[in-house]
Amino acid sequence: MNSSVEKRKAYLLFRWKTYGVGYLFMLPWIVGFLSFVLFPVGWSLYNSFNKVSITSDGFQYHWVGFENYYRMLFENNEYPILLITYFQEMLLMIPLILIFAFFVALLLNQKFPARGFMRTVFFLPVIFATGQVLMELFRQGSGELPFMEQYRVEDVVDLYFGGSVAEAIVSVLSKAVIILWYSGVQILIFLAGFQTISRTLYEAIRVDGASPWESFWKITYPAMIPFIGLNAVYTIVDLFTYPFNPVLKVVQDNMFKATTGYGYASAMAWLYFGLVLVCIGAALGLTYRASGMGGGRR
Amino acid sequence: MKPERTARRLEGLRTAGRMPNRMALQLKRLAIGQNVNDGWIAKIVILLVLTVIAFLYVRPIIDMISTSLKSLEDLIDPVVGVIPRHVDPQNFIDAWNGLVYPQSFASTLTIALFGSAFQVFSCAITGYALARLQFPGKNVFFFLTIVTFLVPPQITIVPLYMIYQQLGWLHTPFVFLVPALLGQGLRGALFVIIFRQFFLSQPKALEEAARMDGASAFRLFFRIMLPLASASCLVVFLFSFIWYWNMYYEATLFLSKGFTPLSIRLSALEMQLIGNQSLTFGADAGKDPIAEGPKMAAAFLIILPPLIVYMIAQRWFTEGIERSGMVE
Question: Which member of A29, A128, A143 has the closest CB to residue B126?
């Protein structure tokens, strides 16, 4: 009896020693998470249910429940409209960025002269795209596609599509450079993904008489689905947390406005965050299904 | 290559009736290739497409350099194209002084260098724990890591400001270095995921062998696992360095005075230039030639150091990405 208790004790001690090492390795992250993520996030969520006013001795809270959300959605109808247009635009941009990055990565993965040089050029966006130096370049107009004005692309699109479709297309075209510059990391991830596909697979399928077209759809594409999912999530996060985006700018403006205040701005940010999470969930769900109901690699 | 050739020959025999002569076959093989990517035609097409896209990437940079070297007359004169009539260093002198370059360079370098070094360290140990160590709640921690990546900075920035103010860290590098050391730096979650994937891919036998020899978990990690992950470390370091270097949004709030990085100085310089402008020219200061030169020069001065770092590390970087933990 006594010995079995001791045995159990010894076993627990042993378990805790191994667990302890794990927790010790996690410790910095846990401390950081509690103080720099969980606490601020919780605070801002609390704020979104309050009317926050700044007085001389700090913040004054006044609990209002869902009033901030209600006001934002039904009284001030600018914000929902802004959200809808922004999400529409992003839903167009994200697939375009993914397709562009996939295409470029596919080309960069081939063997051709000056490959090293090309790769260097195509990794440049990784350096610039986060900075506000790039914003500077956009503002100067050197970011625009050179043929847009020259060939009056806008008029042509308007002629063939008309209405809101044309508007969407033109706005995407005018953002073509953003698509270009925001696919740096995505190209990298795809390139890394291509390296995981074994060459023998391609050789095998070729011996079986498949054309390159078929081997792309039968081997390359299925093997890349997890990476497409990863890239989709990365792109969504990158575009939606981008500090210069119009929604977040409105949030920022409301933070220091007297009529709305920080609580209201927090509620705005939380609604936005919720929508982004829905987007990410949708992207992950699609990847999961495409990779064969979880039978894939993830 | 040999089985391919025999396969080709067999196929040739089968279609003997339509078989072209040897020369033509060889030419065709050279042009189109057996694979999608061996033929010359395919190579030229790939190169062409990539060159066009590469041009779109490089153009803004060329524009930036050429604008920064132009004198005011050259900028106003529409006849002058990309190449300035004479190289004018005045823009660079203005930008150098406007940015307070040596001082803000030092600030930016401190944040970028230490921040990324700390991130490599903290994200590596976190990634290792999540990949290899056993403890209850591991999946919850991994899930939370992903969640931290998704939180928009706007949600946390004001509470963080209050925290830093209470701690007295505002306008000091601590606001970035301490979170970096605790695994919550700029896009830290992404780096944790990279390290986790790398450590997951290593063979288990390695650790077991070391354990047998009586190495502790720490020894094992620092002596064996971390050196193995050097490619991932480099990738993370470079990404982190560049993202810290370019960081703007957080810096505007936390480092607006005193310890000022380059990106903040740039917007200050811009304000100053546009401010002067609006007195003389009125609206549409965005494309103003007087402001444009120094602004572009300043932008170039800011981009130059990471560009040099990238040029040096470029080879290991691309190889490291292909080989290391960016994968899955």
Answer: A29
